[in-house]
Amino acid sequence: MKLRIFSILIFMFTLFSGTAIAANDDQYLSGYATALLKGKYGLDTSVQVRGRELFIPQSVRNDSQYDAIIDELSQLKGIDTIKVVSDEELARIGTKWRRFREPLFRPLVADPKWPKFHVAYHNYSYEKEGAVFNKGMEGDIGGTFSLIRTGAGDYTYTEVGLQGRVNLFMDLYKDSTTSSTTTLINSDYMVGIPLTFAFPGFTIITRFFHESTHVGDEYLLRKEAEEDAGGAHFKRVNLSYEMLEVLAAVEPNSWFRIYAGGGFMPDHAPRDYEYWMWHAGMDMYIKSEYSQAPSIIVGLDVKGFQTTDFTPSYSFTVGIETFENTFLTFEAYTGYSQLGQFYENKVTYYGIGFHLY
Known about the structure:
Layout: H1 2-22, H2 26-41, E1 48-50, E2 53-57, H3 66-73, E3 81-85, H4 87-94, E4 117-128, E5 131-132, E6 135-151, E7 157-171, E8 183-199, E9 202-215, H5 217-228, E10 240-250, E11 256-269, E12 276-286, E13 296-305, E14 313-323, E15 326-336, E16 346-356
Parallel strand pairs: 2-3
Antiparallel strand pairs: 1-2, 4-5, 4-6, 4-16, 6-7, 7-8, 8-9, 9-10, 10-11, 11-12, 12-13, 13-14, 14-15, 15-16
């Protein structure tokens, strides 16, 4: 079991890292060059970058500073050639599909099931058939990656991406059955394809994904030993489903977002697991204007599933940036467990974690 999980983690890390590294950040170069033309040369125009080629409109050639502009743009790292094109051709270039390093729909700060790189230590009040897990370690490896994106006008984009996640929950418990200080309780696996539409101040993500859950072998040994000693029988649950989820996010500015939506599961096991869920929340990413001051993230995520009578489950996260895009977080949760094996049980936890965004 441990070898299988380790192999999956290595595979996903290699896949996701390779995708992120290989992606061309044309959007950044386009934005930088556009800002340079406007800020330094007073030109209210835009440019496009595709595959190390920089395309500028014909109007720039008529500017008296044309030679200086070309000289400066040619010094940009990641640009091999500069081409002057008509406004119509520049617009067509802007609608070509291309790959990006960052997805249009930013990660949900507080959603415990959103694909991300994350490790956390939690104090639990988590009851299942009489057992209480007081200390738990939880780890995630995964993310959302942009595959191709196209523009459909000023600041309007469509994107197809890839999502994947492996989640492990371990109980920090001295197990006399296996002589282990950590027992793998639950592992969840998720893979999906998101389709995102972004407009000024408004983003919609539609994603179809598969998720499955597995109970840890060491935990099964523990429960068998407890049952042999007269304890309650442990009922194993093999929860899996396909879900179509839609989330709409309103972003009035660059640091605040509120979102809401829901999902439908056309196929699921066990068969009595019901079809619908709702999902809402808000998050903030407060980036300081001063280089030495840390950034702060705050998030609240709320979900309800039909199979648990749509009862809300609340997740809260607040964090401070320790390294670039890495946050030390305080995390709290109350509601039905987000671990698939124990979805019928209520859990409350709080603790600290590290998030990589």
